[in-house]
Amino acid sequence: MVDLSIDLGFLKLKNPVLAASGTFGYGLEFKPFFNLELLGGFVVKGLYFNPREGNPPPRLAETPSGLINSIGLQGIGVKAFCEEVLPQLQDLDTAIIVNVCGEEEDEYALVADYLGRFEGIDALELNISCPNVREGGRCPAQDPEATYRTVKKVKQVSSLPLITKLSPNVTDITSVAVAAEEGGSQAISLVNTFLAMAIDLKTRKPKLGNILGGLSGPAIKPIALRMVWQVANTVKIPVVGIGGIFTAEDALEFMVAGAAAVEVGTANFVDPEACLKIIQGMKKWAEENRILKISELTGSLQI
Amino acid sequence: MIIDRQARIVDKKNWGSYFLFSLESPEIARSSQPGQFLMIKVSETDSPLLRRPLSLHNRTNQEVEIFFQIAGKGTKLLSEKRPGEILDVIGPLGHGFSLKKEFKEKEIFCVGGGRGLAPLFFLAKELRAVEARPIIFYGGKTSADLPLRQRLEEAGIETRISTDDGSAGFPGMVTELVEKELQQRAPAFLFACGPEAMMKRLSEICQKNNLPAEFSLETIMGCGIGACWGCAQPIKKNGAIHYLKVCQDGPVFSAQEIIWGEKKYG
Question: How many separate domains does chain A show?
Fold first, then answer.
């Protein structure tokens, strides 16, 4: 019997698989398909304080082995989430992580503070890395100082464990990871999407209404894996690996690179049961390879 | 909604770039409503990555049917599947056409352009089940765009044909044919599915004639189940415009709710 459980220090997970923010709705969308309690947990879609309309369509463009999105964090806002959605999630025996957004540093703190008044949230994921909400794809996670300040502000108002989600659209991701760690973040998740674009040659127009978007899917996996390895070798806090995970093998590779847990994103669109299949595949792989405790894999890269 | 990973292709028909598949999927067939759609996996590889949304064309006890045209890589791959092959299908999804009790004994116009006929066969059958009198308007560029004429005839559904080049039926656009018919008839409702510019023109015609209408929108979709918000379109509700999900709040919306783009028809 393989032990799939993971201890992040601030949060225990049944298994290392979390559904990634922005790809799993508010969780409820997947209830018709499978028992959400089989997941390690899920990260609900990013929340600003107020409802948000998002970007003009078209918002999706398919590319080879990838998907560019420019949704722009459309959502119901933190109040509607806490009043209408959270009561339906609270009793679930799985980790509920809420992705926290903000126009500026104070709004992140406002959202985190508000969420802290409710039961049933296990951790916050700080979204300082969405490429679709500021001009030119800019985000706080491109600047170590802004990252440090935002993390610190949220930590001052919230006692919930904090995972900071980083952007790959930087020259040196390790310096941003260190800034998040120094600011008091208990974990790092990476990577968010890669700033990208697609063009319709016939019309010579951008395929996305927002011109730019974020690339996800199998196309980004090797770069994400490299960044997870770099960050895991730099910080002392746990790392959650994200980027094009579609199979159990993908997830296991991220763990070997140094991830304590993983988030599965775009795969949820292709198959609503993707997380479930990945968990089953990891268990089977561990059994076949006589691994008794899946957490042993974390950082086990042989060089 | 369910995932049927064993939906077997039991029949396949083909006319040029148009295809009609029958899929054995009793559970999906049982709960399907006209205007709803399926998300179908077209490839075992990463290319293309996403499922394809396809309107429900018909259902029987055990089967659902899809009618589609090759529009890109995904539908091309789907068109190459053979009878006996198994498809991975999610459905039925979305919010379909409104079937109202008041439709009883009333004429209902169902207007489809090209592959837009897809959901209207199922709709016309269900309209007849509530004793309404559906009339299908089937428009295409040429007679080759009207492969389902015979099927509509065999089902005994009253049908008006139009072609832009005059090779069959009324010579001109289907919207002109609808306008012409409206001079003699007073339908209770209009449903439509087809190119955006066609539906936009129909929307103007309906407004002028005070005719309530519902349209089925087609967009690129990420998940089809309301999780990604990638299919959102501007929709007017209670006087305010919001981005709503075509996959969950639609694909069918009432005519006055839809904010049309700039494209012109014809």
Answer: 1
